[in-house]
Protein backbone atom coordinates (compact mmCIF):
# COMPACT_ATOMS: atom_id res chain seq x y z
CA UNK A 1 0.00 0.00 0.00
CA UNK A 2 1.44 3.39 -0.91
CA UNK A 3 0.91 6.73 0.76
CA UNK A 4 0.95 10.00 -1.22
CA UNK A 5 4.74 10.36 -1.24
CA UNK A 6 5.21 6.62 -1.77
CA UNK A 7 3.24 6.81 -5.02
CA UNK A 8 5.28 9.81 -6.15
CA UNK A 9 8.52 7.93 -5.39
CA UNK A 10 7.35 4.89 -7.35
CA UNK A 11 6.41 7.00 -10.37
CA UNK A 12 9.77 8.75 -10.25
CA UNK A 13 11.70 5.45 -9.93
CA UNK A 14 9.86 4.16 -12.98
CA UNK A 15 10.86 7.27 -14.94
CA UNK A 16 7.21 8.32 -15.18
CA UNK A 17 7.46 11.68 -13.41
CA UNK A 18 8.73 14.82 -15.15
CA UNK A 19 10.48 17.33 -12.88
CA UNK A 20 10.17 20.80 -14.36
CA UNK A 21 12.54 23.37 -12.88
CA UNK A 22 11.92 26.14 -15.42
CA UNK A 23 9.76 28.95 -13.88
CA UNK A 24 6.12 28.57 -14.87
CA UNK A 25 3.17 30.93 -14.63
CA UNK A 26 0.22 29.49 -12.64
CA UNK A 27 -2.13 31.30 -15.00
CA UNK A 28 -2.61 29.05 -18.05
CA UNK A 29 1.06 28.08 -18.57
CA UNK A 30 1.02 25.28 -15.97
CA UNK A 31 -2.29 23.99 -17.38
CA UNK A 32 -0.90 23.99 -20.93
CA UNK A 33 2.08 21.86 -19.87
CA UNK A 34 -0.08 19.68 -17.58
CA UNK A 35 -2.36 18.90 -20.50
CA UNK A 36 0.44 17.40 -22.56
CA UNK A 37 1.87 15.39 -19.66
CA UNK A 38 -1.54 14.19 -18.45
CA UNK A 39 -2.37 12.92 -21.94
CA UNK A 40 0.93 11.00 -21.97
CA UNK A 41 -0.30 9.46 -18.68
CA UNK A 42 2.77 10.73 -16.89
CA UNK A 43 3.17 12.64 -13.60
CA UNK A 44 4.72 16.08 -13.12
CA UNK A 45 6.38 18.22 -10.49
CA UNK A 46 6.62 21.94 -11.22
CA UNK A 47 9.43 22.96 -8.91
CA UNK A 48 9.37 26.68 -9.62
CA UNK A 49 5.96 28.30 -9.81
CA UNK A 50 6.15 32.06 -10.24
CA UNK A 51 4.95 33.92 -7.13
CA UNK A 52 4.29 30.78 -5.07
CA UNK A 53 6.15 29.11 -2.24
CA UNK A 54 5.20 25.48 -2.99
CA UNK A 55 5.78 23.15 -5.95
CA UNK A 56 2.84 21.68 -7.91
CA UNK A 57 2.55 17.90 -8.18
CA UNK A 58 0.03 15.94 -10.25
CA UNK A 59 -0.69 13.30 -12.88
CA UNK A 60 -0.51 10.70 -10.11
CA UNK A 61 -3.78 8.91 -10.81
CA UNK A 62 -4.31 9.35 -14.53
CA UNK A 63 -4.75 5.64 -15.27
CA UNK A 64 -6.33 2.79 -13.38
CA UNK A 65 -2.96 0.99 -13.19
CA UNK A 66 -1.70 3.72 -10.83
CA UNK A 67 -4.73 3.15 -8.58
CA UNK A 68 -3.64 -0.49 -8.44
CA UNK A 69 -0.06 0.38 -7.49
CA UNK A 70 -1.30 2.69 -4.74
CA UNK A 71 -3.45 -0.18 -3.42
CA UNK A 72 -0.56 -2.62 -3.42
CA UNK A 73 -0.67 -4.33 -6.82
CA UNK A 74 2.73 -5.13 -8.33
CA UNK A 75 3.82 -2.96 -11.28
CA UNK A 76 3.74 -5.12 -14.40
CA UNK A 77 0.71 -7.11 -13.26
CA UNK A 78 -2.52 -6.14 -14.98
CA UNK A 79 -4.96 -4.03 -12.95
CA UNK A 80 -8.11 -2.76 -14.66
CA UNK A 81 -11.46 -1.16 -13.79
CA UNK A 82 -12.92 -4.55 -12.80
CA UNK A 83 -10.04 -5.12 -10.37
CA UNK A 84 -10.61 -1.67 -8.90
CA UNK A 85 -14.31 -2.39 -8.55
CA UNK A 86 -13.52 -5.67 -6.78
CA UNK A 87 -11.19 -3.81 -4.38
CA UNK A 88 -13.95 -1.31 -3.58
CA UNK A 89 -16.49 -4.08 -2.98
CA UNK A 90 -14.05 -5.94 -0.72
CA UNK A 91 -13.28 -2.74 1.20
CA UNK A 92 -17.00 -2.08 1.72
CA UNK A 93 -17.20 -5.47 3.46
CA UNK A 94 -14.11 -4.71 5.57
CA UNK A 95 -14.47 -1.09 6.63
CA UNK A 96 -11.73 0.17 8.94
CA UNK A 97 -12.50 3.19 11.12
CA UNK A 98 -9.95 6.04 11.23
CA UNK A 99 -7.93 6.71 14.39
CA UNK A 100 -7.04 10.00 16.00
CA UNK A 101 -3.36 10.80 16.54
CA UNK A 102 -1.96 13.63 18.70
CA UNK A 103 0.67 15.00 16.31
CA UNK A 104 1.01 15.04 12.56
CA UNK A 105 3.32 15.94 9.69
CA UNK A 106 0.63 18.29 8.39
CA UNK A 107 1.05 20.40 11.55
CA UNK A 108 4.75 21.18 10.92
CA UNK A 109 3.73 24.71 9.95
CA UNK A 110 0.58 26.39 11.29
CA UNK A 111 -0.59 29.69 9.82
CA UNK A 112 -3.37 31.78 11.24
CA UNK A 113 -4.60 35.38 10.99
CA UNK A 114 -2.35 37.63 8.91
CA UNK A 115 -0.09 34.68 8.02
CA UNK A 116 -2.82 33.27 5.79
CA UNK A 117 -2.20 34.16 2.19
CA UNK A 118 -3.95 32.09 -0.46
CA UNK A 119 -2.18 33.78 -3.40
CA UNK A 120 0.95 32.23 -1.89
CA UNK A 121 -0.29 28.83 -3.06
CA UNK A 122 0.51 27.66 -6.59
CA UNK A 123 -3.13 27.33 -7.63
CA UNK A 124 -3.44 27.10 -11.41
CA UNK A 125 -5.96 28.96 -13.55
CA UNK A 126 -6.80 26.37 -16.19
CA UNK A 127 -9.08 27.62 -18.96
CA UNK A 128 -9.66 30.89 -20.76
CA UNK A 129 -13.10 31.58 -19.22
CA UNK A 130 -12.50 30.14 -15.73
CA UNK A 131 -13.46 32.54 -12.94
CA UNK A 132 -10.01 32.33 -11.37
CA UNK A 133 -7.49 29.89 -9.89
CA UNK A 134 -9.11 26.58 -8.84
CA UNK A 135 -8.07 24.06 -6.19
CA UNK A 136 -9.12 20.82 -7.91
CA UNK A 137 -7.61 17.90 -5.99
CA UNK A 138 -8.65 18.75 -2.42
CA UNK A 139 -10.70 16.37 -0.33
CA UNK A 140 -13.32 18.40 1.52
CA UNK A 141 -14.06 17.19 5.05
CA UNK A 142 -17.27 18.13 6.82
CA UNK A 143 -19.50 16.65 9.50
CA UNK A 144 -22.90 15.14 8.71
CA UNK A 145 -25.20 17.05 11.10
CA UNK A 146 -27.61 14.09 11.37
CA UNK A 147 -25.19 11.22 11.97
CA UNK A 148 -22.16 13.08 13.33
CA UNK A 149 -19.99 11.15 10.85
CA UNK A 150 -17.14 12.82 9.02
CA UNK A 151 -17.90 13.11 5.30
CA UNK A 152 -15.29 13.39 2.55
CA UNK A 153 -15.70 14.37 -1.11
CA UNK A 154 -13.60 15.92 -3.85
CA UNK A 155 -14.85 19.45 -4.50
CA UNK A 156 -13.37 22.20 -6.64
CA UNK A 157 -12.80 25.57 -4.99
CA UNK A 158 -12.21 28.95 -6.56
CA UNK A 159 -9.81 31.35 -4.86
CA UNK A 160 -11.48 34.71 -4.21
CA UNK A 161 -8.96 36.68 -2.13
CA UNK A 162 -6.21 36.56 0.49
CA UNK A 163 -8.34 34.49 2.88
CA UNK A 164 -11.55 33.68 1.02
CA UNK A 165 -12.58 30.97 -1.40
CA UNK A 166 -15.76 29.14 -2.45
CA UNK A 167 -16.19 25.35 -2.40
CA UNK A 168 -18.59 24.03 -5.07
CA UNK A 169 -21.05 21.33 -3.97
CA UNK A 170 -23.17 19.74 -6.72
CA UNK A 171 -26.84 18.92 -6.17
CA UNK A 172 -25.85 15.24 -5.86
CA UNK A 173 -23.36 15.84 -3.06
CA UNK A 174 -23.88 15.31 0.64
CA UNK A 175 -22.00 18.55 1.17
CA UNK A 176 -24.84 20.45 -0.55
CA UNK A 177 -27.26 18.95 2.00
CA UNK A 178 -25.01 20.05 4.88
CA UNK A 179 -24.80 23.56 3.39
CA UNK A 180 -28.63 23.71 3.26
CA UNK A 181 -28.94 22.40 6.82
CA UNK A 182 -26.64 25.12 8.21
CA UNK A 183 -28.09 27.87 6.01
CA UNK A 184 -31.68 27.11 7.08
CA UNK A 185 -30.63 27.43 10.71
CA UNK A 186 -28.78 30.68 10.04
CA UNK A 187 -25.52 29.06 11.19
CA UNK A 188 -22.05 28.96 9.70
CA UNK A 189 -20.33 25.56 9.31
CA UNK A 190 -16.74 24.35 9.45
CA UNK A 191 -15.19 22.66 6.42
CA UNK A 192 -11.59 21.62 5.78
CA UNK A 193 -9.76 21.01 2.50
CA UNK A 194 -7.09 18.31 2.64
CA UNK A 195 -4.57 18.47 -0.20
CA UNK A 196 -2.22 15.56 -0.95
CA UNK A 197 -3.78 12.71 1.05
CA UNK A 198 -3.20 8.95 0.90
CA UNK A 199 -4.36 7.72 -2.53
CA UNK A 200 -6.88 5.32 -0.93
CA UNK A 201 -8.61 8.32 0.66
CA UNK A 202 -8.47 10.31 -2.57
CA UNK A 203 -10.27 7.42 -4.29
CA UNK A 204 -12.78 6.90 -1.46
CA UNK A 205 -13.56 10.63 -1.47
CA UNK A 206 -14.62 10.44 -5.12
CA UNK A 207 -16.94 7.51 -4.37
CA UNK A 208 -20.63 8.27 -3.83
CA UNK A 209 -21.60 6.56 -0.56
CA UNK A 210 -24.94 6.54 1.29
CA UNK A 211 -24.99 9.32 3.95
CA UNK A 212 -24.77 6.82 6.83
CA UNK A 213 -21.33 5.63 5.67
CA UNK A 214 -18.04 7.50 5.95
CA UNK A 215 -15.49 7.62 3.15
CA UNK A 216 -12.80 7.48 5.86
CA UNK A 217 -13.89 3.94 6.82
CA UNK A 218 -13.88 2.97 3.14
CA UNK A 219 -10.38 4.41 2.71
CA UNK A 220 -9.25 2.37 5.72
CA UNK A 221 -10.74 -0.75 4.13
CA UNK A 222 -9.03 0.01 0.82
CA UNK A 223 -5.59 0.50 2.35
CA UNK A 224 -6.00 -2.20 5.02
CA UNK A 225 -5.22 0.18 7.88
CA UNK A 226 -6.90 3.16 9.54
CA UNK A 227 -6.51 6.66 8.17
CA UNK A 228 -4.71 8.76 10.79
CA UNK A 229 -6.61 11.88 11.72
CA UNK A 230 -5.65 14.95 13.70
CA UNK A 231 -7.77 17.79 15.16
CA UNK A 232 -8.19 21.01 13.25
CA UNK A 233 -6.79 24.22 14.76
CA UNK A 234 -10.03 26.18 14.50
CA UNK A 235 -12.89 23.63 14.55
CA UNK A 236 -13.80 20.21 15.91
CA UNK A 237 -13.23 18.55 12.52
CA UNK A 238 -10.58 15.84 12.18
CA UNK A 239 -8.36 15.87 9.11
CA UNK A 240 -5.80 13.47 7.54
CA UNK A 241 -2.60 13.70 9.58
CA UNK A 242 -0.37 12.77 6.65
CA UNK A 243 -1.77 15.28 4.17
CA UNK A 244 0.54 17.77 2.52
CA UNK A 245 -1.70 20.69 3.48
CA UNK A 246 -4.97 21.51 5.24
CA UNK A 247 -7.03 24.63 4.61
CA UNK A 248 -9.50 25.17 7.46
CA UNK A 249 -12.66 27.09 6.56
CA UNK A 250 -15.70 28.71 8.08
CA UNK A 251 -18.55 28.73 5.55
CA UNK A 252 -21.13 31.48 6.09
CA UNK A 253 -24.18 31.76 3.92
CA UNK A 254 -24.40 35.52 3.73
CA UNK A 255 -22.64 35.73 0.39
CA UNK A 256 -22.84 33.36 -2.60
CA UNK A 257 -20.65 33.57 -5.64
CA UNK A 258 -21.16 32.40 -9.23
CA UNK A 259 -18.08 30.74 -10.65
CA UNK A 260 -17.20 29.13 -13.94
CA UNK A 261 -14.80 26.26 -14.62
CA UNK A 262 -14.09 23.92 -17.53
CA UNK A 263 -15.37 20.57 -16.30
CA UNK A 264 -15.12 16.81 -16.83
CA UNK A 265 -17.62 16.48 -19.68
CA UNK A 266 -15.78 19.02 -21.84
CA UNK A 267 -17.91 22.12 -21.22
CA UNK A 268 -17.83 25.08 -18.89
CA UNK A 269 -19.99 24.68 -15.82
CA UNK A 270 -21.41 27.65 -13.94
CA UNK A 271 -21.72 26.92 -10.22
CA UNK A 272 -22.96 28.94 -7.26
CA UNK A 273 -21.25 28.45 -3.91
CA UNK A 274 -21.14 30.18 -0.51
CA UNK A 275 -18.08 32.27 0.29
CA UNK A 276 -15.85 30.64 2.92
CA UNK A 277 -13.29 32.31 5.16
CA UNK A 278 -9.93 30.59 5.70
CA UNK A 279 -9.38 30.31 9.45
CA UNK A 280 -6.05 28.43 9.34
CA UNK A 281 -3.63 26.74 6.94
CA UNK A 282 -1.39 23.96 8.21
CA UNK A 283 1.19 22.16 6.10
CA UNK A 284 4.35 20.11 5.96
CA UNK A 285 7.56 22.14 5.83
CA UNK A 286 8.27 20.86 2.33
CA UNK A 287 4.62 20.56 1.24
CA UNK A 288 3.72 19.81 -2.36
CA UNK A 289 0.50 21.23 -3.78
CA UNK A 290 -1.49 18.52 -5.58
CA UNK A 291 -3.44 19.76 -8.60
CA UNK A 292 -5.62 17.87 -11.08
CA UNK A 293 -6.07 19.32 -14.55
CA UNK A 294 -9.77 20.21 -14.74
CA UNK A 295 -11.89 19.54 -17.83
CA UNK A 296 -12.15 16.41 -19.96
CA UNK A 297 -8.66 15.17 -19.16
CA UNK A 298 -7.20 11.85 -18.02
CA UNK A 299 -6.60 12.33 -14.29
CA UNK A 300 -9.90 14.13 -13.65
CA UNK A 301 -11.80 11.59 -15.75
CA UNK A 302 -10.10 8.53 -14.25
CA UNK A 303 -10.78 9.65 -10.69
CA UNK A 304 -14.19 10.90 -11.73
CA UNK A 305 -15.03 7.42 -13.01
CA UNK A 306 -15.13 6.35 -9.35
CA UNK A 307 -17.88 8.93 -8.74
CA UNK A 308 -19.81 8.01 -11.87
CA UNK A 309 -19.31 4.30 -11.22
CA UNK A 310 -21.53 4.52 -8.14
CA UNK A 311 -24.24 6.31 -10.13
CA UNK A 312 -23.94 3.73 -12.92
CA UNK A 313 -24.21 0.84 -10.50
CA UNK A 314 -27.28 2.43 -8.84
CA UNK A 315 -28.97 2.90 -12.25
CA UNK A 316 -28.36 -0.71 -13.27
CA UNK A 317 -29.60 -2.06 -9.93
CA UNK A 318 -32.70 0.16 -10.03
CA UNK A 319 -33.68 -0.83 -13.58
CA UNK A 320 -33.09 -4.53 -12.99
CA UNK A 321 -35.30 -4.45 -9.90
CA UNK A 322 -38.09 -2.31 -11.40
CA UNK A 323 -38.40 -3.75 -14.92
CA UNK A 324 -38.93 -7.26 -16.18
CA UNK A 325 -37.61 -8.95 -19.31
CA UNK A 326 -34.09 -7.45 -19.33
CA UNK A 327 -31.56 -10.05 -20.46
CA UNK A 328 -28.51 -7.82 -20.24
CA UNK A 329 -27.97 -4.14 -19.48
CA UNK A 330 -25.18 -1.59 -19.53
CA UNK A 331 -25.03 2.08 -18.65
CA UNK A 332 -22.46 4.30 -20.35
CA UNK A 333 -21.67 7.37 -18.29
CA UNK A 334 -18.50 8.60 -19.93
CA UNK A 335 -17.11 12.07 -20.60
CA UNK A 336 -16.61 11.19 -24.29
CA UNK A 337 -20.43 11.18 -24.54
CA UNK A 338 -21.02 14.20 -22.29
CA UNK A 339 -22.34 14.26 -18.75
CA UNK A 340 -25.50 12.19 -19.35
CA UNK A 341 -25.99 8.42 -19.21
CA UNK A 342 -26.73 6.17 -22.20
CA UNK A 343 -28.57 2.96 -21.30
CA UNK A 344 -28.59 -0.18 -23.45
CA UNK A 345 -30.83 -3.16 -22.63
CA UNK A 346 -31.22 -6.42 -24.49
CA UNK A 347 -34.50 -8.37 -24.52
CA UNK A 348 -36.15 -11.38 -26.17
CA UNK A 349 -39.26 -9.63 -27.41
CA UNK A 350 -42.63 -11.22 -28.10
CA UNK A 351 -44.09 -8.33 -30.11
CA UNK A 352 -42.98 -5.12 -31.78
CA UNK A 353 -44.52 -2.82 -29.18
CA UNK A 354 -42.48 -4.28 -26.36
CA UNK A 355 -39.15 -2.40 -26.78
CA UNK A 356 -40.72 1.10 -26.74
CA UNK A 357 -42.92 0.12 -23.79
CA UNK A 358 -39.79 -0.96 -21.93
CA UNK A 359 -38.00 2.29 -22.78
CA UNK A 360 -40.98 4.34 -21.55
CA UNK A 361 -41.04 2.39 -18.30
CA UNK A 362 -37.28 2.83 -17.91
CA UNK A 363 -37.50 6.61 -18.35
CA UNK A 364 -40.17 6.67 -15.60
CA UNK A 365 -38.14 4.56 -13.18
CA UNK A 366 -36.33 5.73 -10.05
CA UNK A 367 -32.59 5.47 -10.65
CA UNK A 368 -31.01 5.23 -7.21
CA UNK A 369 -29.52 8.68 -6.71
CA UNK A 370 -31.69 10.37 -9.39
CA UNK A 371 -34.82 9.59 -11.43
CA UNK A 372 -33.60 7.78 -14.57
CA UNK A 373 -35.00 10.48 -16.88
CA UNK A 374 -33.04 13.24 -15.13
CA UNK A 375 -29.65 11.78 -15.92
CA UNK A 376 -30.24 9.63 -19.02
CA UNK A 377 -30.00 11.06 -22.53
CA UNK A 378 -30.73 7.94 -24.53
CA UNK A 379 -32.15 4.46 -24.01
CA UNK A 380 -31.60 1.81 -26.65
CA UNK A 381 -33.17 -1.64 -26.68
CA UNK A 382 -31.51 -4.40 -28.71
CA UNK A 383 -32.06 -8.11 -29.32
CA UNK A 384 -30.23 -10.67 -27.26
CA UNK A 385 -27.73 -11.37 -30.07
CA UNK A 386 -26.29 -7.85 -29.68
CA UNK A 387 -23.59 -7.17 -27.10
CA UNK A 388 -24.91 -4.39 -24.85
CA UNK A 389 -21.40 -3.76 -23.49
CA UNK A 390 -20.01 -2.95 -26.95
CA UNK A 391 -21.28 0.39 -28.28
CA UNK A 392 -19.94 -0.56 -31.72
CA UNK A 393 -22.23 -3.57 -31.83
CA UNK A 394 -25.12 -1.49 -30.49
CA UNK A 395 -24.60 1.13 -33.22
CA UNK A 396 -24.57 -1.65 -35.80
CA UNK A 397 -28.02 -2.69 -34.59
CA UNK A 398 -29.23 0.92 -34.49
CA UNK A 399 -28.54 1.30 -38.21
CA UNK A 400 -29.29 -2.19 -39.53
CA UNK A 401 -32.54 -3.02 -37.72
CA UNK A 402 -34.46 0.22 -37.95
CA UNK A 403 -36.62 0.59 -41.06
CA UNK A 404 -39.75 2.06 -39.45
CA UNK A 405 -39.43 5.75 -38.48
CA UNK A 406 -41.21 5.17 -35.18
CA UNK A 407 -38.28 3.08 -33.94
CA UNK A 408 -36.52 6.38 -33.17
CA UNK A 409 -38.39 8.74 -30.87
CA UNK A 410 -37.48 12.17 -29.57
CA UNK A 411 -39.01 13.00 -26.20
CA UNK A 412 -39.04 16.79 -25.67
CA UNK A 413 -38.59 18.94 -22.56
CA UNK A 414 -37.36 16.51 -19.91
CA UNK A 415 -35.82 17.90 -16.74
CA UNK A 416 -32.04 17.30 -16.53
CA UNK A 417 -29.46 17.27 -13.79
CA UNK A 418 -27.41 20.44 -13.65
CA UNK A 419 -24.44 18.96 -15.49
CA UNK A 420 -26.33 18.82 -18.79
CA UNK A 421 -25.33 22.33 -19.69
CA UNK A 422 -27.42 22.57 -22.88
CA UNK A 423 -30.70 22.04 -20.97
CA UNK A 424 -33.05 25.04 -21.12
CA UNK A 425 -33.85 25.72 -17.47
CA UNK A 426 -37.25 24.33 -16.46
CA UNK A 427 -37.93 23.18 -20.04
CA UNK A 428 -35.03 20.75 -19.76
CA UNK A 429 -33.83 18.98 -22.88
CA UNK A 430 -34.65 16.15 -25.27
CA UNK A 431 -34.30 12.41 -24.70
CA UNK A 432 -33.84 9.70 -27.32
CA UNK A 433 -35.64 6.35 -27.34
CA UNK A 434 -34.33 3.85 -29.86
CA UNK A 435 -35.80 0.44 -30.61
CA UNK A 436 -32.91 -1.28 -32.39
CA UNK A 437 -34.49 -4.73 -32.33
CA UNK A 438 -35.41 -6.71 -35.44
CA UNK A 439 -39.08 -6.51 -36.39
CA UNK A 440 -40.89 -9.77 -35.65
CA UNK A 441 -41.58 -10.24 -39.39
CA UNK A 442 -37.81 -10.11 -40.09
CA UNK A 443 -36.87 -12.55 -37.40
CA UNK A 444 -36.15 -15.47 -39.68
CA UNK A 445 -34.39 -13.39 -42.40
CA UNK A 446 -32.11 -11.02 -40.55
CA UNK A 447 -29.89 -13.56 -38.92
CA UNK A 448 -26.31 -12.68 -38.05
CA UNK A 449 -23.77 -14.72 -40.06
CA UNK A 450 -22.17 -17.21 -37.71
CA UNK A 451 -19.53 -19.82 -38.51
CA UNK A 452 -20.66 -23.14 -37.02
CA UNK A 453 -18.21 -24.38 -34.39
CA UNK A 454 -16.20 -21.12 -34.35
CA UNK A 455 -16.67 -20.59 -30.63
CA UNK A 456 -14.97 -23.87 -29.79
CA UNK A 457 -11.91 -23.32 -31.95
CA UNK A 458 -8.65 -22.69 -30.09
CA UNK A 459 -6.25 -20.99 -32.50
CA UNK A 460 -3.20 -22.28 -30.61
CA UNK A 461 -4.19 -25.84 -31.52
CA UNK A 462 -3.75 -24.95 -35.17
CA UNK A 463 -0.48 -23.06 -34.78
CA UNK A 464 1.49 -25.85 -33.08
CA UNK A 465 4.39 -26.96 -35.20
CA UNK A 466 4.49 -30.58 -36.32
CA UNK A 467 7.02 -32.62 -34.28
C1 LIG B 1 -11.45 15.63 -9.66
C2 LIG B 1 -12.86 15.68 -9.15
C3 LIG B 1 -13.52 16.90 -8.99
C4 LIG B 1 -14.81 16.95 -8.48
N1 LIG B 1 -15.41 18.15 -8.28
C5 LIG B 1 -16.61 18.21 -7.66
C6 LIG B 1 -17.19 19.48 -7.30
O1 LIG B 1 -16.63 20.53 -7.57
N2 LIG B 1 -18.37 19.47 -6.65
C7 LIG B 1 -19.02 18.30 -6.33
O2 LIG B 1 -20.08 18.34 -5.71
N3 LIG B 1 -18.52 17.10 -6.69
C8 LIG B 1 -17.32 17.05 -7.32
N4 LIG B 1 -16.80 15.81 -7.65
C9 LIG B 1 -17.57 14.59 -7.36
C10 LIG B 1 -17.59 14.31 -5.87
O3 LIG B 1 -16.30 14.25 -5.34
C11 LIG B 1 -18.27 12.98 -5.56
O4 LIG B 1 -19.55 13.00 -6.14
C12 LIG B 1 -18.37 12.72 -4.08
O5 LIG B 1 -18.97 11.48 -3.88
C13 LIG B 1 -19.19 13.77 -3.36
O6 LIG B 1 -19.15 13.50 -1.97
P1 LIG B 1 -20.39 13.75 -0.99
O7 LIG B 1 -21.64 13.26 -1.67
O8 LIG B 1 -20.02 12.96 0.21
O9 LIG B 1 -20.45 15.23 -0.71
C14 LIG B 1 -15.50 15.75 -8.17
C15 LIG B 1 -14.85 14.52 -8.34
C16 LIG B 1 -13.55 14.48 -8.82
C17 LIG B 1 -12.88 13.15 -8.96
Account of the 3D structure:
Helices cover 27% and strands 25% of the residues. The protein contains twelve helices and 21 strands. The chain folds into two domains: 4-291, Electron Transport, Fmn-binding Protein, Chain A (Pnp Oxidase, Chain A), CATH 2.30.110; 306-442, 3-Layer(aba) Sandwich (UbiD C-terminal domain-like), CATH 3.40.1670.10. 41% of the residues are buried. Strands 5, 6, 7, 8, 9, 10, 11, 14 and 15 form a nine-stranded antiparallel sheet that branches. The longest helix is centred in the middle third of the chain and has 25 residues, at 298-322. The structure holds flavin mononucleotide (FMN). Residues 136, 151, 153-156, 168-170, 172-175, 206-208, 292, 300, 303-304, 307 line the site of flavin mononucleotide. Flavin mononucleotide binds at residues 136, 151, 153-156, 168-170, 172-175, 206-208, 292, 300, 303-304, 307.
Whole-number total of structural domains: 2
List unreliable stretches of 5+ residues. none
Overall 3D form: globular
Largest sheet: 9 strands, antiparallel
Mean pLDDT across residues:
95
Number of helices, where a helix is a run of at least 4 consecutive DSSP H or I residues: 12
Assembly level: single chain
Helix content: 25-40%
Bound compounds, each kind once, are: flavin mononucleotide
| Rg, nearest Å | 25 Å
Helix/strand-derived class?
alpha+beta
What would you give as the CATH superfamily of the largest domain? Electron Transport, Fmn-binding Protein, Chain A
Q: How far apart are the termini?
A: 48 Å
Q: Kindly estimate the percentage of residues that lie in beta strands according to DSSP.
A: 25-35%
Question: How many strand segments?
Answer: 21
Looking at the structure, the CATH topology of the largest domain is: Pnp Oxidase, Chain A
CATH architecture of the largest domain: Roll
In the CATH hierarchy, what is the class of the largest domain?
Mainly Beta
